[in-house]
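Aim 2, interim progress. The first record below pairs a target sequence with its structure tokens.
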Amino acid sequence: MPSRHALVRRPGPRLAEGLVTHIERRPVDPALALRQWEGYVAALRAHGWRTTEVAPADDCPDAVFVEDTMVVFRNVALLARSGAEVRRAELPAAREAAEALGCSVNAIRAPGTLDGGDVLKIGDTVYVGRGGRTNAEGVRQLRAAFEPLGARVVPVPVSRVLHLKSAVTALPDGTVIGHPQTVDDLSVFPQFRPVLEEAGAHVVLLGDGALLMSAAAPRTAHLFARLGYRPVPVDIGEFEKMEGCVTCLSVRLRDLAG
């Protein structure tokens, strides 16, 4: 069976102070957020994923969104450099976790900026959202890091949501899914399937046709079930108040030994 490993980071007490850019701020319940995070991690484990907790960063309100700290392709972890300067303190412990798993570690350098949530990998194609948190120099450095490993890097404009993966993710067959109102340019993607709910645009591929997704998208879950997939809904409502989704809450690593 392929090795499936996920880095996760528990929410800190200052979660409600995190950055909000494209939606109206709403109250967040830290205790409920912790229970929801525990349910998310339990769903990963129930589907054969080993999880490693990155050391907490309680002074960093957004640290639970650990996906933004790095992008992993093959066995190379490219540490991000967020366009939001306050998030850069999240990186040291993330680097330690990647190194402990045996990743070869590289890093985005100034003046480049990149958030992991702006990167969608479909096979060897790496879509990179260029927008508020990721700039052209960040895209250039990602290309320099991953193209020698066989990646094809495709920049994508992002202006309507926080990250590329706030707008689109992909099904196991490579079809990109998204809520059309949040996508700047649908023509970038060879295959695109619209979903009816914005929360339905986000899936984590658990393996064997299982799709981890928000419980806030029941109609989209029904669509995926009709397509032959197995939706695994989790309640992440407190994180959605902070522009988070199911992809943001983990870094997924597959076949690191390969």
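The second target in this work package is listed in the same format:
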Amino acid sequence: MEPPKYLLLSYDTAAEFDGEDGYEETWASCEEAEGLFGDPPRPARGTYELLGCAPAGELRTALTRARAEGSAPLGPLTLEVLDKRGDCVVEWELEDARVIGDRPCARDLSLRDLTVEASESADNASDYPQCPPLSPGYRLFGADHRPWGTCHDLAHVQLESAEPLEPSVRLLGCAAGGALRAALDAGDEDLGHAKLLRLDAHGRAVQPAVEGELTAWIPSARGRGLIDLTFEPWSERPPTAAPEVWDLWWDGRPAEPNLWARCGSEGREFWLRTALANRAYGEPDRPPGTTYHLDGRHITDERGFFCAIGEAVNGPGGYFGRALGALDDCLRGRWGAEAPFTLLWHDAEVARACLGVTPHTGTCHRPVTFEELLAFFAERHVDVHLA
């Protein structure tokens, strides 16, 4: 019989926020979960009109291309809301913008009304960038704050339909205990809030999976006394790449290096989250000046680099940052190593050929290049030797 893959705990939002210890009670062990995984929905795309636009720079180039080809990509588009003096009040951002048409501006034939398709940034402070009285409108910028001209007004024309609702999670073959067992025996309809953890084959928690509310139960076909629970998540679900990673961690923290290399890009991203969740806290750093060996055979993308350096410093399944900012923090100590130290980068030609070459569409940060990584390390007193 397979050991349970999940552990269900009681969940108290206020207690967790206040940092209380010991408030979680074990409610059930569960053999399996259905409907658990789901990737975040892509941002809803809308159609917007830049009214009274004087395009400049890459926006003007994209407009010319759109007239010839029907549409043209822009990437990120920032609108600076101006006050009556022409000073910036706030910034409002569109992501992965694309020019899909234009026409003469009815109020000023020297200007154009541009139609763009884009997604609103989740970081925007409001749903619409309202201009104050007597404002001349907006200044437009692209990536790296490159000037793209101005426009007098913005119109939100259409928003695409919402993503379909995600299914409930079914927790199968659950052995209930504690307050959950008491609630079931009493016939309570409100079963409470819970947190689901992923376990390894030894019953140790690998990492939290999801939080939500228990809404229903039925007897389970998996065995006498077991139940199947219906669980409605309110937190982000584990991505569809999670099962592959959790299978590689099934026997506990990996003892073999480079297991992450079997995963695709999204799997490597989740591997980094799993490695962070399983890092050992409180262990001393190795002495400054230590030499670490970076196995570069599988560094074919940025995520692969962070998986590899995590293992170079902290062994198989180790973590040492998952982005440049996090790596910078790790280099300051208490994460296994503290600069200065030496990094012997084996098979560095793989990373030199692969890093930073993924096309940038404007929907995410630009991938770091091999040369940028070398410069980053040099600034932080890490002596890199290429082998």
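Residues 97 and 242 are 30 Å apart (CA to CA). This observation will shape the mutagenesis plan for the next reporting period.
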